[in-house]
Design goal:
Elements (H helix, E strand, L loop, with lengths): L1 E4 L2 E5 L5 H8 L2 H4 L12 H8 L7 E8 L2 E12 L2 E8 L9 H15 L5 E7 L3 H10 L3 E11 L5 E10 H7 L6 E5 L5 H11 L6 H12 L4 E8 L2 E11 L11 E9 L8 H15 L5 E2 L7 H9 L18
Helix pairs in contact: 1-3, 7-8
Length: about 325
């Protein structure tokens, strides 16, 4: 999952986040509400190993960023029957009490309902956390299910009470019909009718619709390829195609290389950071496949593409002119 709401981003946590998560989780002041006033006492290596087992279908941990800086975490866990339980922590104390938590929960909940197929979302909090209860009930519309008094003990052995809440998709969409944010997810073969019109625009004149539909079907079932689509509400507004290349890639040191094969955004959504966000998601996918380098190319005359690549962190490593000749017989 990747969500962008103005200067706030929610993205999947990766092994590269293990050090930051360890720092937060070992800080008792951060973890006290979760019952660990002394911190978890964990190590980055264990966190990285645990993150490797995350999946969209079971459990997924996320990093919250403010203008690119990690400030907290969110997560959801699939409880079955189209029900997820969620959690959030703003771990950077300097960014607490600024309303970010409410904004983040709104877009996170909306994405789980609108894009991830959930029908019910659960959340709970400590009975002493009255601020969270106010947000859940008054700003988000959660319904209080129960209060479990003295139902568990924290790390110090002190009895704790828990408040449990539930929210249905029907209630949410009634009160929040048009939540504005950009959502990016990996595409699958069910997206052919969404993806192909965009690829037809990007590669205008080079292929027919049916040819591209066939190519896209192959890409979406390939181990070495991934396509990510950006949405604004129900509208697809961009995509990127990322591949794993195993042969030599110009300017790299060899091995398996992540490669930006193409990126596109609908005209009205350009210059808003969406293409950058799509590429960022693709980069993280290649890292999850063990890539150490990420590469791309553009034609010599495409100065707009050159500027874009340099702007998002690529460096130019060479220029080539390609040749061919026809062979008789």
């Amino acid at each position: 999952m990747f969500i962008k709401k103005e200067n706030l981003t929610i993205r999947n946590a990766t092994a590269k986040d293990a050090n930051q998560l360890a720092a937060w989780w070992n800080d008792g002041t951060v973890m006290s509400h979760a019952g660990f006033p002394n911190g978890l006492g964990t190590i980055p290596e264990k966190i990285a190993a645990d993150l490797a087992s995350d999946s969209d279908e079971t459990t997924r941990r996320h990093i919250i960023e403010l203008s690119g800086k990690p400030i907290g975490e969110m997560n959801y866990r699939n409880l079955g029957d189209k029900t997820a339980i969620i959690g959030i922590k703003i771990c950077d104390f300097a960014e607490q009490n600024k309303g970010y938590g409410t904004v983040l929960l709104i877009v996170f909940i909306d994405a789980l309902f609108r894009y991830m197929g959930y029908e019910t979302i659960d959340i709970d909090t400590n009975l002493t956390n009255t601020r969270a209860q106010k947000v859940y009930e008054q700003k988000l519309g959660f319904r209080k299910i129960c209060v479990n008094e003295n139902s568990w003990r924290n790390q110090l052995g002190e009895l704790q009470s828990q408040v449990c809440y539930m929210l249905s998709k029907e209630d949410w969409l009634t009160t929040h019909p048009n939540v504005e944010y950009v959502f990016i997810r990996r595409s699958d073969t069910s997206d052919i009718s969404i993806l192909t019109p965009m690829t037809l625009t990007l590669y205008a004149g080079d292929h027919t619709y049916d040819e591209l539909a066939d190519e896209n079907t192959a890409l979406l079932t390939s181990y070495n390829d991934a396509v990510f689509i950006a949405f604004d509400g129900e509208s697809a507004i961009g995509f990127t195609h990322i591949s794993l290349r195993h042969d030599y890639v110009e300017g790299t040191e060899g091995g398996t290389i992540g490669y930006l094969e193409g990126v596109y955004t609908v005209e009205n959504y350009r210059n808003k950071g969406i293409a950058r966000a799509l590429v960022s998601v693709g980069e993280k996918w290649t890292q999850s496949k063990g890539c150490k380098e990420f590469a791309s190319d553009c034609t010599l005359e495409n100065t707009e593409s050159l500027r874009f690549h340099l702007k998002i962190g690529f460096e130019e490593v060479g220029r080539i002119i390609c040749f061919k000749k026809d062979l008789e017989g």
